[in-house]
Amino acid sequence: MISILGAGAIGQLLAHKLTDASFECQLIVSDTDKYSSEDWQFCDLDKNISSNQLQSSVYSDTSPLELVFVCVKAPQLQSALDSISHRLGDNSQLVLFQNGMGHEVIAKHFVADQNIFFASNTHGAYRKSSQSLVYAGKGQITVGALTQQSSPQWFNQLAQANTGLAIEWASDIQPILWRKLLINAVINPLTAIHRCKNGELIKEQYQSQLLALIDETRRFAKEMKFGFAEDLKAIILDVIKQTADNYSSMYQDVVAERTTEIDAINGYLLDQMESKQFHAPHHWALWSQFHVQYPPLKRLAEENSKSF
Ligand code: PAF
């Protein structure tokens, strides 16, 4: 049984695709989330609409969890794992789907190092309503482990199945996580600031900021000696093209007034840039612009007022 922690866009995408490919899977949702017993709608890339009766369980259930695809956003990682910790045992394995980096620091409190995996996802999807998902851009999922180099059995079964998710194994996942982080650090805050779909970033009015950020990011990647550095401009522009119709996860968060992954993505990147004494005026300007538009205190106050 594959358990998917979090019923956001990526959690639902995995649940639909795994269910369609006859895997036994369940969504694990918070006790306070309200989902109806109706089917979960899925709008595929070709705009065909289908529905699935997805299995679900709440955090406080007691059945043990073995393989958990952790799809909550980075700011909720600690609290979501805390809420299911009574269901995790020595054999439980966590696959971390969060954007950003450094999440193993939290995961290590719950499972042993050899049971921690990372997944880098570039599929684009957004929720039209809580149980209605739009699959908006085909990407792939690259999985790797914190400690081991070879793929575990569950991975081999997934990769061989006809899920349509294009799942690959990476013996060294770190450069792939970095690549994803650098893509997200450009696309996500820009789409949140300009309140646009990914594809709209190439419009003339946003182009100079986009290109300046891409160039600064490429120079940092070069300084870090990443093999993909020289291709980074083409890589980011290609993700924008492939996911043109998608609303980035950060856009979706600001519109829904949820805490964003800005710290896990851009905060992490700026820390790394600073520790390498890398001059990054465009990324700092982006960071300021984002926080002026979405001040953390205002966001917190909004979240608190919503819970009363
Ligand atoms: O975070 C996201 O939204 C996605 O990683 C991506 C690839 C930018 C597509 O929207």
From TrEMBL:
Catalytic activity: (R)-pantoate + NADP(+) = 2-dehydropantoate + NADPH + H(+); L-methionyl-[protein] + [thioredoxin]-disulfide + H2O = L-methionyl-(R)-S-oxide-[protein] + [thioredoxin]-dithiol
EC number: 1.1.1.169, 1.8.4.12
Residues included from the entire protein: 1 to 308 of 424
One GO MF term attached to the UniProt entry: peptide-methionine (R)-S-oxide reductase activity
Positions in coiled-coil regions: none
The gene coding this protein: msrB
Protein name: 2-dehydropantoate 2-reductase
Pathway: Cofactor biosynthesis; (R)-pantothenate biosynthesis; (R)-pantoate from 3-methyl-2-oxobutanoate: step 2/2
Tree of life domain: Bacteria
Source species: Kangiella aquimarina
Claim: Oxidoreductase is one of the keywords in the record: yes
Family: Belongs to the ketopantoate reductase family. Belongs to the MsrB Met sulfoxide reductase family.
Bilayer-spanning residue ranges: none
Keywords tagged on the record: NADP, Oxidoreductase, Pantothenate biosynthesis
